[in-house]
Design a protein that fits this description.
With 251 residues, the protein is mainly beta. It contains one helix and eleven strands; from the N terminus they run H-E-E-E-E-E-E-E-E-E-E-E. It is elongated and about 70 Å long.
Length: 251
């Protein structure tokens, strides 16, 4: 079963549960939320062509939005909302024989690259979660379900340095990349990033005051960061982020 079928199956299950226990509209609870996220867009396993992680810089990743909670029967509930958030990272790795496309001196190059790669990734998006909730105790609530994100801005770019490219084939023309900025090559794959992303979110809420909750969430993208037709980056990159947030109930 592919990732889209998983998400759609979960959506159908949540909607079926909610329709079986309809309550009056005044049962709805509305909260505003603000949070901070840490994570990366990464393959599920590191390929042999990536030899070393040189640096990983955390970037400011914020979340603001509105949540709507709807109680169902017993300890069950349904939660959705609209979040505006950004996710990004800056990373530098050392590669050997890593498939890359780049531009140097106005010339487009592609082949197997050995050396240093610096990458900057940033996405701004609107996210709609749909989660089932379960109250395990008076102050604790678990929640899990799919989400859909629509990107409003995106960036996937960087440069390569201190190495060389074997053009087209492993034994192709050797093109040197220096350390100085004018000796490097650059790349920009921003247009190949998906505008719509789907994934799963799971976490917990802790009720710390009359109207205030503290939440911890883990979101795992299932569709990958780039379009499936994009083959320049060898591995599928999945956005995986943890978020710590506060929610204040306004209704």
């Amino acid at each position: 079963m592919n990732s889209r079928r998983i998400v759609f199956s979960l959506l159908a299950m949540l909607l079926a549960v909610s329709s079986s226990a309809i309550r009056p509209a005044d049962s709805l609870r509305v909260a505003v939320r603000a949070g901070y996220s840490l994570g990366a867009s990464t393959p599920t396993s590191i390929p042999a062509s990536i030899r070393r992680l040189n640096s990983f810089a955390l970037t400011p990743n914020f979340l603001v939005g509105v949540d709507v909670y709807y109680p169902l029967s017993g300890q069950w509930g349904l939660q959705t909302g609209l979040h505006f958030e950004n996710k990004g990272m800056n990373v530098a790795v050392t590669t050997k024989g890593y498939h890359m496309a780049m531009v140097k001196g106005g010339e487009e190059l592609e082949g197997l690259y050995t050396g240093r790669v610096e990458q900057k990734t940033k996405s701004w998006m609107l996210t709609i979660p749909l989660k089932g909730t379960y109250d395990v105790a008076k102050r604790w609530r678990l929640h899990a379900g799919p989400y859909l994100s629509v990107l409003t801005a995106r960036r996937f770019s960087g440069n390569v340095a201190d190495g060389y490219l074997r053009k087209d084939t492993p034994t192709g023309q050797k093109i040197e990349m220096g350390h100085a900025m004018e000796e490097r090559a650059t790349y920009d794959f921003s247009e190949h990033m998906r505008r719509c992303q789907m994934g799963l979110d799971l976490g917990t809420d802790y009720h710390i005051a009359r109207r205030l909750d503290l939440s911890a969430d883990l979101s795992w993208g299932l569709t990958g960061l780039m379009h499936s037709s994009f083959k320049t980056v060898e591995q599928t990159l999945y956005p995986i982020y943890g978020t710590l947030s506060l929610a204040y109930q306004i209704k």
